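I have been asked to look over a protein record a colleague put together. The record follows directly below this note.
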Amino acid sequence: MPVTPGEIAAEVLRGQLNDFDKRLQRERYALRKSKIDVIQVNVGKLCNQTCVHCHVDAGPSRQEIMSRETAEAVLGLIRKSGAGTVDITGGAPELNPHFDYLVEQSRLLGCCVIDRCNLTVFFEPGKEYLPEFLARHRVEVMASLPCYSRENVDKQRGKGVFDKSVEALLWLNRLGYGKTGTDLFLNLVYNPVGPYLPPDQSGLEADYKESLYKDFGIAFNRLFTITNMPISRFASYLIATKQYQEYMELLVNSFNPSTLDGLMCRSMLSISWDGRLFDCDFNQMLGMAIPGPGAGPLTVHDFDDAAITERPVDTGSHCFGCTAGTGSSCGGSVI
């Protein structure tokens, strides 16, 4: 079977002594886990969209879905970890049949719950209840909207996605999301359309707020800029368009040591749909699982907080994506 461009990129990025390790050595910086505050749960790769920049390689034909048994084990891990935030992602996480259960039980544990939502999922058959469900459980919505122009959004995510996204945002606004004086937080996520670093987060947020309110009356709380990671589908795109090396050079040359203390991998634990544990979602997509007590990876069933805290974070050359410029994380710029 021929090796795909994405698999080639993955092998490059997972090199044993990668360039990122060498850069950390030059900085005399030890990248280690601190106390786990965020549990990010990838409930599967099934999605109603197929986006060019997607590092998960999610889409309508994917069949990887977290089972109820694994979801219950995840909740047990959350209880043991004492984490304050549960960040649910996918694919489109709402397409997992146990999404509601995870939300409800995580809220009962007192956790802040984040739903990484592509907005168009609200219009899938049987999912029309989702906005009201999210509002009722005070779920923070992290909605991906790569631009405030129809042309750019549809180019990256598919024809008609922008109009559905606008309709979904207005729906959430009517429920109180993004409005001053409510605890219903609506944040947007921006990814560059191509192999570029995101612009200044605060300046872009101002542009988004002005444009979306002026054109549609849409309000939201924050905008987070996230660097496109050179893995999976985006890596395949870069290789196919002969931009992979150039993009990696951009990330490496834009390394900023001031981002290191704020890297999300230090306080996050990422869980895959099948229950394996990773330092971050990007490591998860490269198969870089945290080693378990035996020959296999650490899983939700043998989680031990003491074994996680202060362990060195597993890195690869893809980590330059999180340390370029002002940095990148699932919560936007690091600095």
Observations:
- The chain has 13 helices and eight strands.
- Residues 251 and 324 are 5 Å apart (CA to CA).
- The chain has one domain: 5-323.
- Strands lie at 38-42, 85-89, 112-117, 140-144, 186-190, 222-225, 268-271, 277-278.
